[in-house]
Design brief:
Elements (H helix, E strand, L loop, with lengths): L2 E6 L2 E9 L5 E3 L4 H5 L19 E4 L4 E4 L2 E2 H7 L2 H10 L5 H13 L5 H8 L7 H11 L14 H26 L14 H10 L4 H14 L6 H10 L5 H12 L7 H14 L4 H9 L20 H17 L4 H14 L2 H5 L7 H10 L7 H22 L24
Antiparallel strand pairs: 1-2, 2-3, 4-5, 5-6
Helix pairs in contact: 2-9, 3-18, 4-7, 5-6, 5-7, 6-7, 6-11, 7-8, 7-18, 8-9, 9-14, 9-18, 10-11, 10-18, 11-18, 12-15, 12-17, 13-15, 14-17
The site of carboxymethyl coenzyme *A (CMC) has 21 residues, from loops.
Length: 420
C-alpha cells in the first residue's frame, strides 16, 4: 500500500492511500490526530469516507449505480425485489431453491402482533405515516426479544432480513389502511410475490400492473451506499444498538425532505404550482433566488453530478405506468416542463442539478392509488434491505468502532461562573 507524506507544524505523518476495486482513492487519516494533533473538518461529510464497503458502487460523474457489481438497469429488467434483497444481504445471487426458501421465510414473518396494529390505530389519522412506521418498528423489539442484542448468531442474522421484510410489508399496509380509514383485516398471502402481496394487503386485491410498477420502484430504492439514512443506521448500530433501534433510526433520517421525504415534497410542490396556475417558470426563478427559501424539490444530488440513473429509469416507466393504468395526471406536464426548463438554465447547469429519484416517483405512487403522505414509507419499504445490509457489513467488520466524530470547538474559552 502506498502512502502520502503530510508535514504539519514540523511533524510529519504517512497517510496510507486506500484504493477500491473501482480505483476510487482515499487517504486514511485515522492516525493524523495522534501524530500531528490535527483533525480533518468536513461539514456534511461531503468528502469523507466513513467505511470500506462491498455492497453498492456509485460513480456520480458517470451516473452509474450497481448493487454487488450488477448494473441497476439489468436488475430492474431481469430481477425482482426479493432477489435483489437477497443479493444485497447475503452477497450472492440466490439459486431457485434459495429464492423460494427466502420468499417462504418472508411469508412466515408476514404477520404482525395485534398489539402493534392497535398501536398504529392509536395514532391520529392525520399523523404522519413515517412516525407510525418508526414507532412500530421500534415496538417489534418487544415481540422478538431474541433479536434484541448486537451479537446475533449466523442463524439469527439470516432470519433478520426476512423477519423485517415481512413485518415492514404488513406494518406499511396497516398504516395505509389506518390513514385511509380502511378495515384492519390484513391477510398476507404466501402465494403472491412481495409487491403483489403488499398491493393486496393495501387494496384487498392484487393488480399485476401496479405490482410490477412497484417492484421496479422497490428495486431502484433498495440501496444507495452511505446516504444519510444508511449512515445513520451504521452510526446507531455502531453503539451495538439492536436491529430494530438501528432500522428505526434509518426511518427517521429518511423522513427529512432533503432525503426520502423529498418524494412527498415534490408532489406537494407540483400540486401547488398547478394550483397557482401552472406557471413553472416562476418557480424556477424562485429556486434561483438565494433570498428565498424555496428549492426545486426532486432536483440535485450530493453524489450524482450528471444524471441520476434511477430518475432516468423512473421517468421512462412513468409514461408507461400512467398509460397502462389509464391515469392522466396534469402535474406530469408541469414536471416535464420544469425539468426541460431547468436543464437549459445556467443556474442548474453550472451547479450540475438534475432530477433525482424522487422527481417522478410520486407521480407513479399517486397513479397506483397511494396517498401522498405514504410516499416516504414506500421509499423505506424499498430501502430496508439496504439498511440491514449496511448494518450487517458494519457489525461483521473486523475493525468495528463506535462512530464518534471529533469537532473544532469555537465556543467561549474558560470563564469563571462567579464573574457577572
Ligand atoms: N434547488 C435550487 N438550488 C439547489 C438545489 C435545488 N433543489 N439543490 C442544490 N441547489 C444549489 C444550492 O443552493 C447550492 O448553490 P450555491 O453553490 O450557489 O450555494 C448548490 O446548488 C449546491 O447545493 P448543496 O445544497 O450544497 O448540495 P448538497 O450536496 O449539500 O445537497 C441535496 C444535495 C439533494 C440535499 C440538494 O440538492 C437538495 O436540497 N435537493 C432538493 C431535495 C431533494 O430532492 N432531495 C432528494 C435527494 S435524492 C433522494 C435521496 O437519496 O435522498
Amino acid at each position: 500500500m502506498s502512502s502520502y507524506k503530510l508535514d504539519l507544524d514540523g511533524k510529519s505523518v504517512e497517510l496510507p492511500i486506500v484504493v477500491g476495486t473501482e480505483n476510487e482513492k482515499g487517504l486514511d487519516i485515522s492516525n493524523l490526530r495522534a501524530e500531528t494533533g490535527y483533525i480533518t473538518l468536513d461539514n456534511g461529510y461531503v468528502n469523507t469516507g466513513s467505511c470500506e464497503s462491498q455492497i453498492t458502487f456509485i460513480n456520480g460523474a458517470k451516473g452509474i449505480l450497481r448493487y454487488r457489481g450488477y448494473p441497476i438497469e439489468q436488475l430492474v429488467e431481469k430481477s425482482s425485489f426479493e432477489e435483489v434483497s437477497y443479493l444485497l444481504y447475503y452477497g450472492k445471487r440466490p439459486n431457485k431453491s434459495e429464492l423460494e426458501g427466502f420468499k417462504a421465510k418472508i411469508g412466515e414473518y408476514s404477520v404482525v402482533p395485534k398489539e402493534i396494529i392497535k398501536m398504529i390505530e392509536a395514532f391520529p389519522k392525520d399523523a404522519h405515516p413515517m412516525g407510525m412506521l418508526a414507532t412500530a418498528v421500534t415496538a417489534l423489539s418487544g415481540f422478538y426479544p431474541e433479536f434484541v442484542k448486537s451479537n446475533l448468531n449466523d442463524d439469527e442474522k439470516n432470519k433478520a432480513l426476512p423477519l423485517l421484510m415481512g413485518a415492514f410489508k404488513v406494518i406499511s399496509a396497516a398504516i395505509y389502511r389506518h390513514v385511509s380509514s380502511g378495515s384492519m383485516k390484513l391477510n398476507s398471502q404466501s402465494s403472491l410475490n412481495y409487491p403483489e402481496d403488499f398491493v393486496s394487503l393495501m387494496f384487498d386485491k392484487s393488480d399485476e400492473d401496479v405490482a410490477k410498477a412497484l417492484d421496479i420502484l422497490l428495486i431502484l430504492h433498495a440501496d444507495h451506499e452511505q446516504n444519510c439514512s444508511a449512515s445513520t443506521v451504521r452510526m446507531v448500530g455502531s453503539s451495538k444498538a439492536n436491529i430494530f433501534a438501528s432500522i428505526a433510526s434509518g426511518i427517521n433520517a429518511l423522513w427529512g425532505p432533503l432525503h426520502g421525504g423529498a418524494n412527498q415534497a415534490v408532489i406537494e410542490m407540483l400540486d401547488s404550482i398547478q394550483a397557482d396556475g401552472g406557471d413553472y417558470k416562476k418557480y424556477i426563478e424562485l429556486a434561483k433566488d438565494k433570498s428565498h427559501p424555496f428549492r426545486l424539490m426532486g432536483f440535485g444530488h450530493r453524489v450524482y453530478k450528471n444524471f441520476d440513473p434511477r430518475a432516468k429509469l423512473i421517468k421512462g416507466s412513468c409514461d408507461k405506468v400512467l398509460a397502462k393504468l389509464g391515469v392522466s395526471d396534469p402535474v406530469l406536464d408541469i414536471a416535464k416542463g420544469l425539468e426541460a426548463e431547468a436543464l437549459k438554465d445556467p443556474y442548474f447547469v453550472e451547479r450540475k442539478l438534475f432530477p433525482n429519484v424522487d422527481f417522478y416517483s410520486g407521480i407513479i405512487y399517486r397513479a397506483l392509488g397511494i396517498p401522498t403522505t405514504m410516499f416516504t414509507v414506500m421509499f423505506a419499504l424499498g430501502r430496508l434491505p439496504g439498511w440491514l445490509t449496511q448494518w450487517k457489513e458494519m457489525i461483521e467488520g473486523d475493525s468495528l468502532k463506535i462512530c464518534r466524530p471529533r469537532q473544532i470547538y469555537t465556543g467561549e474559552t474558560l470563564r469563571d461562573f462567579s464573574d457577572q
